[in-house]
Amino acid sequence: MKARTVVVTGVSVCALIAGAAMAGDTFGTGANEFTIDFVTISGATNPDSGYGIVSDDYRMGVHEITNDQWDKFRNSLGVGVWGTPREAYLDNSAWTGTNVPTNNTSWYEAAQFVNWLNTSTDHQAAYKFTGTQGTGNYRLALWSAEEADDDTNFYRHKDAFYYLPNVDEWVKAGYWNGTALQTYTNASPGDLRGGVPDPTKWNYGWSAWHRPCDVGSGVEELNGTFDMMGNVWEWMESQPQEIGTNAPRWLCGGTYNLDQSYLASVTGRIGHFPYFEHMTFGFRVASELPEPASLALLALGGLAVLRRKRR
Asked: Which among 4, 57, 131, 197 would be 20 to 30 A from 310, CA to CA?
């Protein structure tokens, strides 16, 4: 565990001064401004073993990143979302609509989105790319042990504020009820039908939507998120086996066209190469948690400098 100082700028805060659990962070300017809402996930309790062990507080995005948010990021970036390998950057969203989760997304594209969230708000980029952004020679690299989060996560920089969740962070946000990992993300037993998620409340198994639905169309989940089951697969930061720039990464949460077996906390993930794009692949964003005193300063327009512990 390592303490460090984080400078937080460019974040708008909604309702947190009164102690609410949700914050909306604003990015971009003018016509390209957008907000990502987050819920706080506590590190106070954890499973005894397996996935979902995260001992520090953090935030998870309430929704999957949408086409609208992706397009506004791309407009704000100023250069193309491009790089090596070429096949990671070929496809636009197959499913259109402003508020559907962005899709046909490779891990490398998601990483560039997250990096821009950081750099556009004066934070350290989470993921290391070399070469010239917006050109074909832009490629992922690994951080050194001195730069890596907790000295062991060679994908994420230790000073990053926004990042793709790893499997532990994602599973805990979706399935941990403070005492145990639930099989599903349901907040109430009434959200199940016959012991499985009600298909009128989650978009899976070719339910009534027959395609990705607008984020937040279903039921609110256990810890305040939406669509962590169904809709589209979500890229994880971490990988099934080896560490490497082209090593496979997990995707979690199932999708609109698969059955309930892909929604469970234990089995709900697949592995794929990070350059792969598919019409069922999207992502959501996680972040560090600003301290309440710093949020008050932000709300007053001040510059907040806060201390926190690293995982």
From this structure: 131
Q: Which two tokens stand for residue 106?
A: 């490779």
Model confidence pTM above 0.85: yes
- Higher-confidence residue of 213 and 23: namely 213
The radius of gyration computed from the CA coordinates of the chain, to the nearest angstrom, equals 18
Q: Tell me the sheet residues that pair with 252.
A: 234, 269
Which of 155-159, 285-289, 290-294 is least confident? 290-294
DSSP helix/strand/coil, 173: helix
Structure tokens, 272: 């794929």
209 with 230: CB under 8 angstroms?
Answer: no
**pLDDT > 90? residue 163:** yes
pLDDT attached to residue 15? 35
How far is the C-alpha of 5 from the C-alpha of 13, rounded, in Å?
20
- Phi and psi torsions of 54, nearest 5°: -140, 115
Burial class from Cβ neighbours inside 10 Å (0-12, 13-18, 19+) for residue 266 reads: exposed
Most distant CA atoms of the chain, gap in Å: 53
Output the CA–CA distances (angstroms, integers) from residue 62 to 85, 158, 223, in the order listed: 31, 23, 9
Q: In angstroms, rounded to a whole number, what is the distance separating the alpha carbons of residues 182 and 198?
A: 15
More confident residue, 9 or 102: 102
Q: How far apart are the C-alpha atoms of 166 and 302, rounded to whole Å?
A: 31
Residue in the block written with tokens 């395609």: 211
Give the torsion sign (CA, 207, 202, 112, 141).
Answer: negative
**Tens digits of per-residue pLDDT, 55-76?**
999 999 999 999 999 999 999 9
- Give the pLDDT of residue 16: 35
Mean pLDDT of the chain: 89
Residue 50: DSSP 8-state: S
Q: How far apart are CA 10 and CA 243, in angstroms?
A: 33
Tokens encoding 31: 């016509």
